[in-house]
Amino acid sequence: MKIANLSGRLVLIKDGKAVDVARASDGVFPADPQAVYERWAEFRAWASAVEDEGVPFDPADLGSPAPAPRQVLAIGLNYSEHAAESGFQVPDDLPPVFTKYASAITGPVTTVELPEGGHTDWEVELVVVIGSRAHRAEASWEHVAGLAVGQDLSERITQMVGPAPQFSLGKSFPGFAPIGPWLVTPDELDNPDDLELGSSINGEEMQKGRTSDLIFSVPALIARLSAVLPLLPGDVIFTGTPAGVGLGRTPQRWLAPGDELVSYVEGIGELRQTFVQGGQ
Ligand code: ZN
Asked: Domains of the chain by range and CATH?
């Protein structure tokens, strides 16, 4: 099953067309895309029996399938080659965890302002959306509603300023958390633990990895994070980025005005960000 946020309304994607959920369910399920995760099991049962054909739509009108989560957890250094290019050791017990503040979340096709004087970098990531409350949960896919593509855009100067890293602020400028193009349930994928993901700038490949190389897999993250705090329906987890970011290149490279960044995850889809220079 695929669901999306089309102009702020929850839709079911069937054969490339969109079925408006509030209309098709006669209001049983509200139009708010974020609300569906509270009733995920009930919604899945309803969605499996929907017969509406849906209507064509413009991908430019898609928003994030989880536009207003209560919690966004983001994982650092979760691929060993990326840990090495960043100059860190591979984490063993617990990877670095930070947040991307929810105001940074956008849909899949956007124009992003580059912060003045910044070094803005790219990080393609598999994004997990939680479908049922998980607290002290076992390592499994049980609590996952579905998967999307995410970009963990990161302004490295802000990220590193001061005596301790400012990961959360440096990664939360407006538009720095595109998610989409839709949410795909794990059963749609041949092997949700082994998906190719990558990114390119102006057609030039920057990153290419596989989620089977995650140090902490999706089930392992659910267990490790929920050992500390409850994961709530609709929460978003950015699972970490593979090697090939601008910070790890020689010479280092940053996003520039006019660049077009494409990020993809196999079996899910792609994001497309165009960059312009922001003012002060
Ligand atoms: Zn990241």
From this structure: 2-57 (no CATH), 63-277 (3.90.850.10)
Overall pTM surpassing 0.70 (yes/no) = yes
- Alpha carbon of 94 to ligand 1 centroid (Å): 15
Rounded Cα distance between 182 and 99, Å, is 21
> In angstroms, what is the span from residue 70 Cα to ligand 1's centroid?
19
For residue 99, how far is its CA from the centre of ligand 1 (angstroms)?
A: 10
Ligand 1 centre to CA of 152 (Å) is 5
Please write the tens of the pLDDT for every residue from 182-222. 999 999 999 999 999 999 999 999 999 999 999 999 999 99
Cα(124) to ligand 1 centroid in Å equals 7
Q: For tokens 């049922």, name the residue.
A: 132
Find the 137 Cα to ligand 1 centroid distance in Å: 24
